[in-house]
Amino acid sequence: MVKVGLIGIGFMGRGHLDNYIRLEAEGFPVKLVAICDIDKDKFENKFLPGNINVGNKKYDFSKYNLYTDIDEMLENEDLDYVDITLPTYLHAEAAIKALNKGMHVLCEKPMALTVDECKAMIEAAEKNNRKLMIAQCLRFWPEYEYLKECVETNRFGKVLAGYFFRGGGTPKWSYQNWLLQKDKSGGAILDQHIHDVDMINWLFGTPKAVSTIAKNVIPGSGYDIVSTRYIYEDGKVITAEDDWVLNGEYGFSMLYRVNFEKGNVVYEKGTLKVNPNDGKSFTPDLPKENGYYREIKYFINALINDTPIDVASPYSTMETIRIAQAEIESADNGGKFVEL
Question: Based on the number of CB atoms within 10 Å of its own CB, is 254 exposed (0-12), middle (13-18) or buried (19 or more)?
């Protein structure tokens, strides 16, 4: 039985909590034994809802060992791994502490605020011979996995162009409003746009250069609207955009549109549609589970079977941070091309 401690039960932490409850109910060999959160009110089910439904029900916290101090939990609990769903600026510190205690680490995206912090996390994992995985959930999302397979197999020929977008209302639900503080979240680029930066990295590799225009709307929050062009040697036209000031009744959206030599693949409004140039459109038959469930299950299986973290290796997710930092540098300089 794999024993886990969950650190942080804010918006994303509750999504992870729901999946541990589900996995245990399904008989999967994992047991959530401890939960830590600095805000003890959360243990009384006092939460603010987020922009997507990742876990908003009432929980029975009596079955877990509860902590408000990370060091105390790491000292007292005999855990196989910790699942870190803390604010971004705390990722590196918490991960390194756990790794140095001999625990494996699953950490929410983004990996950290800087490449140097990412390197320190990897060094701690390697020094202690522990596994480290960043929960870049789209790598486990069926619709994005399908796109990855199309790219790698040239099912519809080479990629000509790709467009990626996500956006929604301003995130006002975070503890002490950390999401809207640039020095703690990195703004929309590192918190929300990072999903599509990671997809572009995973699908196409590191671009030769990036050019980003971005705008700050909310004082102190960093960039709230972003549009990036990714330059590749073969000339494919890749763009990703994000906007987290789409308020009112807009809701939340994530989509992609990738054009190949022999067709195009479009994902929007929760539906994947494949449009071959010389045939009828179709919707592929895909797994029903979402990326949150599948990434946790993948990590636990890697621990049980002692297999490498290939889908989301820490080196790959560190490269995602390097690309995002280049985007910020470009935006800071009016969209100038920044080489990678």
Answer: buried
